[in-house]
Design brief:
Helix content: over 70%
Number of helices: 8
Number of strands: 0
CATH class of the largest domain: Mainly Alpha
């Protein structure tokens, strides 16, 4: 067990040094390094928006804007002990808050791309799964931003407690407590919505 931990820790350090080199090169204006950062972090940032925004095109636009702002602010970026992805999530969070402020509070239907493909005869399980997913989405929207973020990292992205703590700038024990409260709040919201 200790040997596999050392190997994983070594891999993490190697990835961190590759990332640090890419950031340094991107700050110097290397388009290839900017592309590497974009390729590495596009999907987590897109998922961050997609789980919170109904419209796929809006989620894609906001994701693109994160990377535009990344390029604009990259010369001033300093790691300060937090992962680069945490910095990108901060940019994304600010854009999301601006997006929410500009939107009227009207519930929208579940996006078509998240629905399962329906055949000619809609099966009961598919309809039930769509209804459960819609209920989860509505319940998630009622949680605090930190609660949403911890559930996104832990369950949708499959990150460890330690990775989540680094991304959110918190201690692992705080993440465990936040996750516990988030799951309890999600359960309460789902009961209120009649999903459980």
């Amino acid at each position: 067990m200790k040997a596999s931990f050392r190997v994983m820790h070594s891999i993490d350090r190697e990835e961190d040094s590759i990332e640090a080199e890419a950031i340094r090169r991107a700050q110097a204006g290397d388009p290839e390094a900017v592309g590497w950062l974009y390729d590495r972090y596009y999907l987590p940032i897109y998922r961050y928006f997609r789980i919170r925004i109904e419209n796929q095109e809006e989620a894609e636009d906001l994701t693109a804007e994160v990377f535009v702002r990344m390029i604009e602010h990259l010369p001033r970026y300093r790691a300060q002990g937090r992962p680069f992805l945490a910095w990108l999530y901060t940019i994304a969070r600010n854009l999301l808050m601006d997006h929410y402020r500009a939107q009227p509070r009207v519930p929208l239907p579940l996006p078509a791309d998240l629905e399962r493909e329906m055949g000619t005869g809609e099966e009961f399980e598919q309809i039930e799964a769509r209804a459960r997913w819609e209920c989860v989405r509505r319940a998630l929207r009622a949680l605090t931003h930190d609660q949403q973020e911890v559930l996104l990292h832990r369950f949708l992205e499959g990150r460890s407690v330690e990775e989540t703590a680094r991304l959110m700038g918190k201690q692992p024990n705080a993440i465990k407590a936040l996750q516990h409260r988030a799951l309890a709040a999600l359960r309460r919201q789902m009961k209120e919505l009649g999903c459980l």
